[in-house]
Design brief:
heterodimer; A: 74 residues; mainly alpha; 4 helices; globular; B: 758 residues; alpha/beta; Serine Threonine Protein Phosphatase 5, Tetratricopeptide repeat; Rossmann fold; 5 domains; eight-stranded mixed β-sheet; five-stranded parallel β-sheet; 15% strand
């Protein structure tokens, strides 16, 4: 699950998945801009066949939070 | 269904012995599978493998498909850890079970690919496609397999992968693969610059449009104007947009952002004033568009406004006068009428249609609209990109020119040879009505300049009779430029059709209900677009109309007449077969030509010729109408066109020449002829007249160039044959010159040159 999330995030924001850590966030990852964030959300919704809410989308700022949000939906 | 009665033992986990043997085996299997998954997740692969052996040996009596899943989990883990040999061994051991699963077959193919066993990999992957042709992954791997040896074929497999996985992830993976091919291989992709401007977020379309472009051998370069910066971008000739110099520009406007004073206070404004508010804004947009079109050579495609999925006033919206729907409808009408001012380069994109087709409520993504001002929801983006291609394709010169059709179960239901003229399904009753409508859709394509051809295993006499006598036949034999009804192999027939029509295979679309014939064409002629025809004939028309590969942005007289032009060509060929000598054939044609400087009537056609002519085109320079107009108006250049005709009919404008004047010499920037008329001396007549015009202008030398492409070998020796001297001979360019005083080109005796059109 975590590996899959990391891969999706890496593809969405177009960085190498090894460069992403648990503390990576839009604040310290220049590639993770608002456009990349939207791409990631679209990819997550498609991959896991879920619908994220506006609040969840805003909260998904690090990999651990993303994992928490998504696993609650599955 | 009756549930099995629960035995008290079944509730007691300490005594599984109480279960009946089948239930117990199933339970052990389920537990075993879970164990394998657990071990794999934590990286204990060899233990997982042992467990798998155990489960398999016990589980054989039970349904096999239960066993596939844990094996797949393990195969995936091997794949990830690059233990391809182990994966291969595992698959081979249980091939009889795993070979039934497209996922396992794909993983096996992948491991073979990594072990460099291409033959085995291909077998597994083809096997996976046979199991489930809608599973995308094997196409991706087949693409990888061919990436080095046959990049064109690789792109075609990657494209099929994207077609089956048209999502953001699918698009990203597809793009990455094709980009790496583009880096290392000489794929002949056409560069095209595409710009987006507007007042809402449209950037997410990029990946989808890039993927669609790659499918059509177009390599796009993108420009996205700043958010809500379209006014500055379009009005300022030094803006980023102008510097980017796009071939095509898309303008996306959201009605609410365009006119907040109207939509935010909609019900506070008197109904009769509402449209005036919108109209003021639209007039401003129109002025901007016209300014942009004046200053730029780009096509401009403006998206229409979206109607909401529901209205504030409900059904009363339509009763109150100047309701939301009425106002937005009027705004869209207004926008449409604005584009009529420049039909060549100003177009409407029907975003409202695309969103309706996607289903506004099914694909709505309201959070993205609030968060990111994405008016077009992400789920609709793949379809939007396909719609944009309807404009990108013709601008990039990738429009298909000919539709090749089968007859039985394609143009009518049933088999003519078996059921006879009265027995085939075609008419107003189902299922005949589906074929009736399909024929009407085909006929409409022919009306806008698409050439039709028949490629059918059929008896020619029966077919003629059916077309002549069936009362509900919508198409006539005369609608087809080329007909092959015989028992030959369809690939051979298609090759002959291509030869006869003098079109490259990449101009063809093949529509045939028989999957075997489609496979044949796909394998032998990957350049031809073979349509995946649905099994159900009621889907034919929709499939054809949604293709979007035949789009024309501007119809010329030649387009409307094309079938006739090709048919008379057919008659000419017939005569050629009869004529014992070429000269007497040419003599009998009674060809007439007229050569004139381009004027406003001929400029669109001249531009079209520069964009479409690939074979007899010495330099293959592509020009827009604006470019041609600039050449025609400049002192330093001349544009001539050639019109021809013969006893069978008028050819229309079939040749163009652009001359750059340099002191006392003329440089032929462009010299091209439509291949329809090549080989009849018309090209020599054209050159003869260019020389004559040059001499009248006291020009001493004519310089010609030849830039080789994959398609223009036919023109390679044209200048030397006409007496030019070779000045430079490089792989990329040959330069020729001719001293007009020594010119010996004469007008071919069988061609009559007219000074003016009759």
């Amino acid at each position: 699950m975590k590996t899959k999330l990391r891969e999706i995030l890496a593809t969405a924001i177009d960085v190498d998945s090894d460069e992403l850590t648990d503390v990576s966030s839009p604040d310290n990852t220049p590639e993770w801009d608002s456009f990349a964030h939207m791409t990631m959300v679209a990819a997550m919704e498609e991959e896991f066949k879920i619908a994220l809410t506006l609040d969840e989308v805003k909260s998904m700022q690090t990999l651990p939070i993303i994992e928490e949000v998504i696993s609650q939906k599955l | 269904m009756a549930k099995p009665i629960l035995k008290s033992d079944a509730l007691n986990p300490s005594s599984p012995e109480g279960l009946d043997p089948a239930t117990r085996a199933e339970m052990e299997l389920t537990a075993g599978c879970q164990e394998i998954r657990f071990l794999v997740e934590r990286g204990y692969l060899s233990m997982a493998r042992e467990k798998l052996e155990e489960v398999f040996s016990k589980g054989r009596q039970i349904k096999n498909h239960h066993l596939v899943e844990p094996a797949i989990v393990l195969l995936q883990a091997y794949e990830k850890n690059k233990q391809y040999q182990s994966a291969n061994e595992l698959f081979k051991q249980y091939e009889s079970i795993l070979g039934e699963s497209q996922v396992a077959l794909t993983l096996a193919g992948s491991s073979c690919l990594n072990l460099n066993d291409s033959q085995q990999a291909e077998n597994f992957l083809e096997g996976a496609i046979q199991k489930d042709s809608s599973y995308p992954d094997p196409y991706l791997l087949l693409g990888d397999l061919y990436a080095k040896s046959q990049p064109d074929k690789a792109v075609s497999y990657y494209s099929q992968y994207y077609d089956l996985r048209s999502s953001i992830m699918g698009a990203r993976i597809f793009i990455k693969r094709v980009k790496s091919l583009l880096k290392t291989n000489s794929l002949s992709f056409k560069n095209l610059s595409i710009a987006f401007i507007g007042n809402f977020t449209i950037e997410p379309i990029k990946d989808f449009l890039e993927a669609e472009c790659f499918k059509q051998s177009i390599q796009p370069k993108f420009y996205f104007g700043g958010y809500d910066q379209y006014i500055q971008e379009m009005a300022d000739a030094n803006s980023g947009l102008f510097n980017f110099d796009p071939a095509i520009t898309f303008l996306f406007l959201d009605s609410q952002t365009l006119s907040p004073e109207l939509f935010n206070k909609f019900f506070d404004i008197l109904p009769e004033k509402r449209f005036h508010l919108a109209e003021d804004k639209l007039k401003h947009v129109e002025a901007l568009c016209n300014k942009f079109l004046d200053l730029s050579k780009s096509h401009l495609v403006v998206s229409n406004f979206l109607l909401p999925s529901d209205y504030y006033m409900g059904v009363y919206d339509s009763k109150m006068g100047s309701g939301q729907k009425e106002i937005l409808g009027k705004m869209n009408d207004h926008l449409l009428s604005q584009t009529r001012s420049n039909p060549q380069r100003f177009h409407i994109l029907d975003t409202e249609k695309v969103l309706s087709n996607c289903g506004k409520t099914t694909c709505a993504n309201e959070k993205m609209r609030y968060l990111a001002k994405m008016i077009i929801p992400d789920q609709a983006l793949p379809d939007m990109a396909r719609e944009l291609m309807r404009f990108v394709r013709p601008v990039g010169g990738k429009t298909k020119k000919c539709l090749v059709l089968d007859l039985d179960n394609t143009l009518w239901g049933g088999i003519l040879g078996e059921e006879g003229l009265e027995g085939i399904e075609l008419g107003l009753e189902p299922p005949g009505n589906a074929f009736y409508e399909f024929q009407k859709a085909v006929k409409a394509l022919q009306r806008r300049g698409i050439i039709l051809a028949i490629n059918s295993k059929n008896d020619p006499d029966l077919v003629r009779e059916a077309f002549e006598k069936h009362p509900d036949m919508q198409l006539k034999l005369s609608d087809f430029a080329c007909i092959r009804t015989n028992w030959n192999d369809k690939a051979q027939n298609l090759r002959e059709i291509a030869d006869e029509l003098n079109l490259g295979l990449s101009s063809f679309v093949f529509f045939d209900d028989n999957p075997a014939e489609r496979l044949l064409i796909r394998q032998q002629m990957p350049e031809v677009l073979t349509i995946e025809v649905p099994e159900d004939c009621s889907e034919y028309t929709r499939t054809l109309l949604s293709l979007g590969v035949f789009e024309t942005l501007h119809l010329t007289e030649e387009d409307k007449n094309r079938t006739h032009l090709y048919q008379t060509e057919d008659k000419r060929r017939h005569l050629k077969d009869q004529a014992t000598e070429l000269d007497s054939y040419l003599e009998s044609l009674k060809t007439q030509v007229v050569i004139q400087p381009a004027d406003s009537f001929s400029i669109p056609r001249v531009a079209q010729l520069t964009q479409r002519t690939n074979q007899f085109n010495l330099t293959t320079q592509r020009y827009s109408e604006a470019d041609i107009r600039a050449f025609a108006e400049s002192e330093k250049s001349r544009v001539y066109f050639l019109k021809s005709g013969d006893r069978f009919g008028d050819h229309g404008i079939v040749g163009a020449c652009i001359v750059r004047v340099e002191n006392d010499s003329w440089e032929l920037d462009t010299f091209l002829m439509s291949c329809r008329v090549i080989g009849r001396g018309i090209e020599n007549a054209f050159l003869y007249d260019i020389f004559r015009k040059a001499s009248e202008d006291h020009i001493k030398n004519v310089v010609g160039r030849y830039f080789p492409t994959r398609k223009n070998q036919i023109a390679e020796s044209f200048y030397p044959d006409a007496g030019f001297e070779t000045m430079a001979d490089n792989p990329q360019e040959k330069v020729f010159t001719l001293n007009l005083e020594k010119n010996s080109v004469s007008l071919p005796s069988h061609i009559k040159m007219l000074r003016h059109e009759n």
